[in-house]
Amino acid sequence: MTDTSQRSRPLRVLAAMSGGVDSAVAAARAAEAGHDVTGVHLALSANPQSFRTGARGCCTIEDSRDARRAADVIGIPFYVWDLADRFREDVVEDFVAEYEAGRTPNPCLRCNEKIKFAALLDKALALGFDAVCTGHYAQVILREDGTRELHRASDMAKDQSYVLGVLDDRQLAHAMFPLGDTVTTKEEIRAEAERRGLAVAKKPDSHDICFIADGDTQGFLANRLGRAEGDIVDESGTKVGTHEGAYGFTIGQRKGLRIGTPAADGKPRYVLDISPVDNTVTVGPAAALDVTALTAIKPRWCGAAPVGPGTYTAQLRAHGGETEVTAELVDGELRVHFTEPVRGVAPGQAIVLYDGTRVVGSATIATTARREAATA
Asked: Domain tRNA-specific 2-thiouridylase MnmA-like central: where (predicted)?
């Protein structure tokens, strides 16, 4: 197998430049490899001042200026493309709707699927580009039979393959990740940026959700969905507190519950279930979070769909570890059983399956089964 981050022939490459150091170095490496590179910054808000300020986000006016300056230093053409309407519909509105339904979405994964490798790629191909280049840490491997596979980055500490698990064969065929095969620290990437004269070398990494300006997810949802007081109950159904909107909670949450009645055993309680129908949040002990199995819907495969049951490792959150599972596709749903129980698994999250370092595919968690009972 060979890594396709450095293609054998020059390509017309569209480099998505967020204004951060990773995407700038990725674009510079693609240009240095001999490709015909054009930089593009995605304007994802009709009012970019409402997004994160300073260096914390990837959607501000400052970020677009940083991206333009980096493109000038690299010596490549640069454009800003307005995808604000598409971003609002496919990412922001989806995020709000998922929370309203009692689920916990991952907006970064949805952005990669719908914006960077759907809307952006489609436009790039229509304009005659061969590939889209990003600063993600992952690898696209070209096999001898001509098929492509998505693999983890060489440096597991920076691996971002989880949020790319939604990419299909067509998208992988036009994806380029110049940082994925590099076993370097972030400090070394910054040093490389500084050697290249890129002003973003010392710019802090972005964090949290770009479209929530102050980082207050619960406040953002309250403004969109309105406050709706409801009950917090224990496993027996006894009321132990109140809340101002069930959408403000996630499965496994411990902090911010504001429960007036302590547990009989004196131990902390966690969110076990969220019911948007009756606006109720159920809490209980940590042991009640143990999930032994789940079903997931809307599977997307980085290659052919698996046939029959198989043993894999699974990742359940962007910065989480791996856990061993058996999985099988049944009537379009992914049925997953964990070798050892796991905690904090919530409907709406993505599960990504791996075969070694290869990404098999991803799906959206619909229901979970706990050690003693099944919970939707």
From this structure: 219-284
**Which residues are annotated as part of the binding site?**
16-23, 42, 135
User: Measured between alpha carbons, how far is 149 from 277 in angstroms, rounded to an integer?
Assistant: 41
Read off the pLDDT band of 1 (50, 70, 90).
Answer: very low
Distance CA 70, CA 199 (A): 7
Residues at the binding site for ATP are: 16-23, 42, 135
Is CATH 3.40.50.2300 the classification given to domain 227-288?
A: no
Catalytic residue among 58, 111, 133, 302: 111
- Partners of 150 in beta bridges: 140
How much is the pLDDT for 351?
97
**What are the residue ranges of helices labelled H in 234-295?**
none
Please identify which of the residues 58, 59, 210, 302 carries the catalytic annotation. Answer: 210
pTM, rounded to two decimals? 0.88
Fold of 290-375: Elongation Factor Tu (Ef-tu); domain 3 (2.40.30)
The CA distance from 345 to 375, in Å, is 11
Q: If you write DSSP's letter for every residue of 50-70 in order, what string do you get?
A: GS--TTS-SSSHHHHHHHHHH
Q: Which of 165, 167, 169 is nearest to 152 (CA)?
A: 165
Q: Between β-strands 36-43 and 78-82, what pairing exists: parallel, antiparallel or unpaired?
A: parallel
Tens-digit pLDDT profile for residues 153-174: 988 888 999 999 999 999 999 9
Q: Tell me which amino acid residue 146 is.
A: G
Active site residue 58: no
Given 2.60.40.10, 3.40.50.620, 3.40.50.150, 3.30.70.640, which CATH number is that of 2-202?
3.40.50.620
Give yes or no for residue 58 having a pLDDT over 60. Answer: no
Name the residue ranges covered by the structural domains of the chain: 2-202, 227-288, 290-375
Instruction: Spell 94-122 as b/e; 16+ CB within 10 A means b.
Output: bbbebbeebbbbbbbbbbbbbbbbbbbbe
For residues 117 and 131, the answer to whether their CB atoms sit within 8 Å is no
What pLDDT is stored for residue 375 in this prediction?
44
Concerning whether 111 is annotated as a catalytic residue, the answer is yes
- Distances in whole angstroms, Cα of residue 375 to Cα of each of 238, 273, 291: 18, 8, 9
Contact between 20 and 63 (Cβ < 8 Å):
yes
Q: Which residues touch 188 (CB under 8 Å, ≥6 apart)?
A: none
